[in-house]
Amino acid sequence: MANYDNPNGFRPVSFPARTNVYEVTAATTVTKGDALAIASGKVLPYVAASHTAIIGVAAESGSGGDEIQVYDDFATEFEGQCSGTFAATLIGTAVDLEGTTGIMEVDENGATNDVAVILGHYPLPGADEIGANSRVKVVFGGHATLA
Fold first, then answer.
1. How many CB atoms lie under 10 A from the CB of residue 3?
2. Per-residue three-class SS string for 106-136
3. What is the CATH number of the domain that holds 137?
4. Secondary structure (DSSP) of 13-29
5. CB under 8 Å to 15, separation ≥6 — which residues?
6. What DSSP string describes 31-66?
7. How many structural domains compose the chain?
8. pLDDT, tens digit, for every residue of 17-32?
9. Range of 8's domain?
């Protein structure tokens, strides 16, 4: 059976996963599981073309001006879906992310900003093949500047 194609962001798989409260940038929507950047002290969904670092992952959804919980401990491991095909040779590789709010994925072919490191395969029941749309475990590296 092939893996499910269900890009739904990131969820913590190591516990305890610490959170802190951040305010969402005006006119912005954040979905639970989104990787987040920070600008002017407020969070917004990470976009490789616009941001160079990740502050954390949204623990809940919110919109402009809302205060939300964010997993911001860089020791936390997350699971997420690869946008293409995962191979065991990618373990330890620094990669970027792609997708928009609610549908973020690991871009195993892209290393624009090297914001995540693949730690290994993280299969889900019924979707455990290595290959297209594999789930992987990642950590996000380096704190963003609190500008």
1. 21
2. EECCCCCCCCEEEEEECCECCECCCCECCEE
3. 2.40.300
4. -SSS--EEEEEBPTT-E
5. none
6. -TT-EEEEETTEEEE--TTT-S---EEESS-EETT-
7. 1
8. 999 999 999 999 999 9
9. 1-147
The rounded distance, in Å, linking the Cα atoms of 83 and 62 is 25
d(CA 144, CA 147): 8
Question: Is this structure's pTM higher than 0.70?
Answer: yes
Amino acid identity for residue 65 in this structure: G
Place of tokens 């191979």: 87
Residues 120, 72, 61, 13, CA torsion sign: positive
Digit-coded pLDDT (tens) for 68-105: 999 999 999 999 999 999 999 999 999 999 999 999 99
